[in-house]
């Protein structure tokens, strides 16, 4: 079990988190059926409401951790990763392009399949008039916070990223100037940010350990009060997300084929270890060394492109997360009977881009930053509780796409010319060997 996978020790054996969640799901369904499955007595209905309390506590903790996590993740990335000037701009453009495509694919699939409407659920009416209207100038105007620390308390993702990027860029520049002058005054602040980042991640780990209890409570409560309809909608959501992630994977292969010398087959052969690790750890950061080695040893990229794509990418590049956050917002809006118009979906695009930049490459980070996307479009965050039940699985799938995205960026940075021009026959042999 990797250090990123939390486990519970029982009878001398460690039970991984996903098994705990699965067990919680099964037990909760049993309890929900016992309590009435959609038709509870008044007493059981009261009890069901109490059962939802652990989940709302977990959500509150996730909301509270979201802003420090994003701020520290961005500052930490700027301070600790080396991006050479010219490649930096190219990298930023590639990252932005890929993330935008991911979100558009997510929104397209969610709009076409409309998974939130597959099953009629009586949540509608809970949230009438809750979403915000799109106001482009208001958005620009409000992107600058009234006070530097205000976005931290307001949970405003756009303002937060503006603050984080400003400080990140400045700290990076100061560090470079000091390094060039042989000074090291920047070290204490770098150490402070690193240790605070690790501290937030550790607290997040504690919260994640409570997820099985939260899942048990919310599933038992939902089955008791609403029966199984919400889970049919969730099944539709899973299908839609998997389809969108698959399309994003195809987009990467096409992008690699057209924008680099790497053939899709070679790319997939080089990605096999990284993808299995990504799926089993649900962490693109934990997968990073394997991604890097795959790019160097199996694909045969130059070290500079492999490190820039894999190391920087795994900090900033989370296309799977962006796609998922946008789809989740649309799905919950559909469940609530709210129609997000094109302009509101544009806010979803913008905030999902920002939220994915700030999402750390650790398990469930997307769930944390999602609270900020929901807040930005005015969707009630308590409905994220529904998604917690399936997030353990979808997290693994979107992490694979995050890693595939990092590999794509590396290939594109490597350009159209291979490191050493391989004879086609030699390349064939190479591919079958890594296969
Ligand atoms: N687990 C994902 C990753 O490590 C982040 C997320 O939760 O979306 O890339």
TrEMBL record:
<protein>
    <submittedName>
        <fullName>Dicarboxylate/amino acid:cation symporter</fullName>
    </submittedName>
</protein>
<dbReference type="InterPro" id="IPR001991">
    <property type="entry name" value="Na-dicarboxylate_symporter"/>
</dbReference>
<feature type="transmembrane region" description="Helical">
    <location>
        <begin position="322"/>
        <end position="340"/>
    </location>
</feature>
<dbReference type="GO" id="GO:0016020">
    <property type="term" value="C:membrane"/>
</dbReference>
<feature type="transmembrane region" description="Helical">
    <location>
        <begin position="372"/>
        <end position="394"/>
    </location>
</feature>
<dbReference type="GO" id="GO:0015293">
    <property type="term" value="F:symporter activity"/>
</dbReference>
<keyword id="KW-1133">Transmembrane helix</keyword>
<feature type="transmembrane region" description="Helical">
    <location>
        <begin position="266"/>
        <end position="292"/>
    </location>
</feature>
<feature type="transmembrane region" description="Helical">
    <location>
        <begin position="347"/>
        <end position="366"/>
    </location>
</feature>
<dbReference type="InterPro" id="IPR050746">
    <property type="entry name" value="DAACS"/>
</dbReference>
<feature type="transmembrane region" description="Helical">
    <location>
        <begin position="233"/>
        <end position="254"/>
    </location>
</feature>
<feature type="transmembrane region" description="Helical">
    <location>
        <begin position="91"/>
        <end position="113"/>
    </location>
</feature>
<keyword id="KW-0472">Membrane</keyword>
<keyword id="KW-0813">Transport</keyword>
<dbReference type="Pfam" id="PF00375">
    <property type="entry name" value="SDF"/>
</dbReference>
<feature type="transmembrane region" description="Helical">
    <location>
        <begin position="17"/>
        <end position="37"/>
    </location>
</feature>
<keyword id="KW-0812">Transmembrane</keyword>
<feature type="transmembrane region" description="Helical">
    <location>
        <begin position="195"/>
        <end position="221"/>
    </location>
</feature>
<dbReference type="InterPro" id="IPR036458">
    <property type="entry name" value="Na:dicarbo_symporter_sf"/>
</dbReference>
<feature type="transmembrane region" description="Helical">
    <location>
        <begin position="157"/>
        <end position="174"/>
    </location>
</feature>
């Amino acid at each position: 079990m990797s250090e990123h996978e939390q486990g519970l020790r029982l009878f001398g054996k460690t039970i991984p988190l996903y098994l705990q969640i699965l067990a919680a799901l099964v037990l909760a369904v049993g309890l929900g059926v016992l309590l009435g499955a959609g038709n509870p007595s008044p007493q059981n209905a009261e009890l069901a409401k109490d059962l939802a309390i652990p989940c709302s506590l977990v959500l509150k903790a996730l909301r509270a951790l979201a802003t420090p996590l994003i701020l520290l993740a961005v500052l930490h990335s700027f301070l600790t990763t080396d991006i050479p000037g010219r490649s930096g701009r190219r990298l930023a453009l590639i990252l932005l392009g890929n993330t935008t495509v991911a979100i558009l694919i997510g929104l397209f699939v969610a709009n076409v399949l409309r998974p939130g409407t597959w099953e009629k659920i009586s949540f509608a009416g809970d949230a009438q008039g809750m979403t915000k209207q799109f106001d482009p100038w208001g958005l620009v105007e409000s992107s600058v916070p009234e006070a530097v620390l205000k976005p931290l308390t307001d949970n405003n993702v756009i303002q937060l990223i503006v603050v984080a990027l400003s400080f990140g860029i400045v700290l990076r520049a100061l560090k470079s100037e000091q390094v060039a002058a042989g000074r090291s005054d920047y070290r204490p602040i770098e150490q402070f940010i690193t240790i605070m980042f690790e501290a937030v991640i550790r607290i997040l780990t504690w919260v994640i350990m409570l997820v099985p209890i939260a899942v048990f409570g919310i599933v038992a409560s939902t089955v008791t009060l609403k029966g199984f309809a919400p889970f049919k909608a969730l099944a539709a959501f899973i299908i839609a997300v998997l389809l969108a992630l698959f399309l994003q994977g195809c987009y990467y292969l096409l992008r690699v084929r057209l924008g680099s010398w790497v053939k899709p087959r070679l790319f997939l052969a080089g990605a096999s270890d990284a993808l299995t690790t990504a799926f089993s750890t649900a962490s693109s950061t934990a997968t990073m060394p394997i991604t890097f080695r795959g790019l160097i040893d199996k694909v045969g990229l130059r070290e500079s492109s492999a490190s820039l794509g894999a190391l920087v990418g795994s900090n900033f590049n989370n296309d799977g997360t962006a796609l998922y956050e946008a789809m989740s917002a649309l799905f919950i809006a559909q469940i609530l009977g709210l129609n997000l118009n094109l302009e509101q979906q544009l806010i979803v695009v913008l905030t999902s881009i920002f939220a994915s930049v700030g999402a750390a490459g650790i398990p469930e980070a997307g769930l944390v930053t999602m609270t900020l996307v929901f807040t930005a479009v005015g969707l009630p965050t308590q409905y994220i509780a529904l998604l917690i039940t399936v997030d353990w699985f979808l997290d693994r799938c979107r992490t694979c796409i995050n890693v595939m995205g990092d590999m794509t960026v590396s290939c594109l940075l490597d350009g159209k010319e291979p490191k050493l021009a391989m004879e086609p026959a030699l390349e064939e042999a190479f591919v079958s060997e890594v296969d």
